[in-house]
Design brief:
It is an enzyme of class 5 (isomerase). With about 170 residues, the protein is mainly β. About 10% of the residues lie in helices and about 35% in strands.
Length: about 170
Amino acid sequence: MVAVETSHGTFKVELFEDKAPITVKNFLQYVEDKHYDGTIFHRVISDFMIQGGGFEPGMKEKKTREPIKNESANGLSNLKGTLAMARLGADRGGVKAADSATAQWFINVKDNTFLDKAKARDGAGYCVFGRVIEGMDVVEKIKAVETGDAGLHESVPTKDVVIKSVKIVKEEKK
């Protein structure tokens, strides 16, 4: 489990290591490297998703490691509150879009099952690897921010929504 502290509040995420082992290992490596600390939610579409993990304020792109294998065939669905890896929408420069995910991820703010491998137009789909289990009200606040264009980027918050930190937290025993 991880806690994501943002400028709008904190939310907790349960990770599905059993269903997406490559993706979760990759995500946790970025967490341990503090890659996400100080990044922003750079793409916010209120009836779709909020995306972060790749840009610092000013839309300065962060360097990433090599892309990982897409685990979208893991049986998990892009339902409201789930986290999925962002990837290229089309093959680019010798990189296959299906296996192009690096550090960026998004939270589905409604059911987006058209992103599931079984329904995806490109046949690849987007790998779900976690879900928000606490603080969905924070996600709702973020999805409601004002957005505009920033250079070639669309749906960018007009005021930075900063990811202050992402930390591994121990699950409380019930």
